[in-house]
Amino acid sequence: MDKIKDLANKAKGATGGSSSGAAQGGQQEDYADKGLDSVENKFGVDSAKYRSTNEKVVSLVLIYSADLVLRARWS
Fold first, then answer.
1. Which of 12, 69, 72, 75 has the fewest CB atoms within 10 Å distance of its CB?
2. Three-class DSSP labels, 27-42
3. Residue 31, class by beta-carbon neighbours within 10 Å (0-12 exposed, 13-18 middle, 19+ buried)?
4. What is the pLDDT at residue 14?
5. What is the pLDDT of residue 23?
6. Residue 29: is it exposed, middle or buried by C-beta count within 10 angstroms (0-12/13-18/19+)?
7. What is the pLDDT of residues 28-69, one digit of tens each?
8. Mutual orientation of helices 2-14 and 51-74 as an angle, nearest 10°?
9. What is the 3-state secondary structure (H, E, C) of the chain?
10. What distance in Å separates the CA atoms of residue 69 and residue 65, rounded to the nearest whole number?
């Protein structure tokens, strides 16, 4: 569990402030970002307003899903 927390903290630090501007500045979004943006658009939420929070959420979801896959393979 500590490994997951460490990875989550690294993801938070990596997406803290620099990637929010970089994502708007022309970097390509991955499928998870696009999926979250489409859900937000369906509910009328301005995705540009919450870009930094979205990056953190997507990073944590990807980390947890990767951890679950690795645990399933090794158990």
1. 75
2. CCCCHHHHHHHHHHHH
3. exposed
4. 53
5. 45
6. middle
7. 778 888 899 999 999 999 888 988 888 898 989 989 999 899
8. 150
9. CHHHHHHHHHHHHHCCCHHHHHHHCCCCCCHHHHHHHHHHHHCCCCCCCCHHHHHHHHHHHHHHHHHHHHHHHHC
10. 6
Asked if residue 11 has pLDDT above 80, the reply is no
The total number of residues written for the chain in this structure:
75
| Residue whose entry in the numeric block shows the structure tokens 């870009």 | 51
What would you report as the CA-atom Rg of the chain, rounded to the nearest whole angstrom? 14
Q: What is the pTM of this model?
A: 0.53
User: Which residue reads 């022309």 in tokens?
Assistant: 26
Helices 31-42, 51-74: axis angle to 10 degrees equals: 130
